[in-house]
Design brief:
The chain has a single domain (about 5-135), classed as Nucleotidyltransferase, domain 5. Helices cover about 45% and strands about 25% of the residues. It is built from four helices and five strands. A five-stranded mixed sheet has the order 3-2-1-4-5, sandwiched between helices. A hairpin with a 4-residue loop joins β1 (about 5-10) and β2 (about 15-20). α1 (about 40-50) crosses α2 (about 70-85) and α3 packs across α4 (about 115-135).
């Protein structure tokens, strides 16, 4: 994977974001996008991808533990399609099972207070999603 990758953790209220460095070795959480609607959020994500020079956008697909898709996964697929309409880079879906749970555990173990965890959880989930994607797609 060459170039920066933007990871998107889609949520009903907030969308967590993280960006990689151009080599894919480091990830940085970005401020959340407040979701007021899918069209507005898709435009903001596409603009952030342009601003940060992302070559790929990875959107977390919330599969069930058995690997099947539920209504949440269908909503993410629709959202990813909207993002793709607003940008000129590929948008990929990536299995995000348990990233939110893992993020919550890390924040709790780190002693982060509940109200602060809400904000940080989405960013950390996006960073964990991005790390998973980058590890599965090392540079050739």
């Amino acid at each position: 994977m060459r170039g920066r990758v933007l990871a998107v953790d889609y949520g009903s209220r907030r969308i967590g974001l993280a960006i990689s460095d151009p080599t894919g070795t480091a990830t940085e959480p970005l401020p959340n996008v407040q979701r007021r609607g899918d069209d507005q959020a898709a435009r903001e994500v596409a603009e952030l991808a342009r601003r940060h020079g992302a070559q790929t956008i990875v959107v977390g697909l919330p599969l069930r533990l058995d690997g099947t898709e539920g209504p949440e996964a269908q909503a993410v697929r629709r959202f990813a399609g909207r993002v793709e309409q607003y940008c000129a880079v590929p948008v990929r879906l990536w299995d995000e099972r348990l990233t939110s749970v893992q993020a919550e555990r890390l924040l709790t173990a780190g002693g982060v207070r509940r109200e602060r965890r809400r904000v940080l959880r989405d960013r950390l989930s996006a960073a964990l999603l991005l790390r998973s994607f980058l590890e599965a797609h090392p540079d050739p």
